Amino acid sequence: MNVASEKVMQKNGLKYEGTLRKKEFLKNKFIDVKYYSILKDEYSK
Questions:
Q1: Structural domain total, the chain
Q2: Which of 4, 9, 22, 44 could pair covalently with 30 via S-S, beta carbons 3.0-4.6 A apart?
Q3: pTM score, two decimals?
Q4: pLDDT of residue 1
């Protein structure tokens, strides 16, 4: 888990949507994937 990347997403207005458990196979093991998103009307430049 990359905590610094999560903080950047949150700071830029992205919302945590959820975690897909054991979604990706990486380095011989399954890992969880956290999803963040932002809607167009929530985005401001």
A1: 1
A2: 22
A3: 0.75
A4: 66
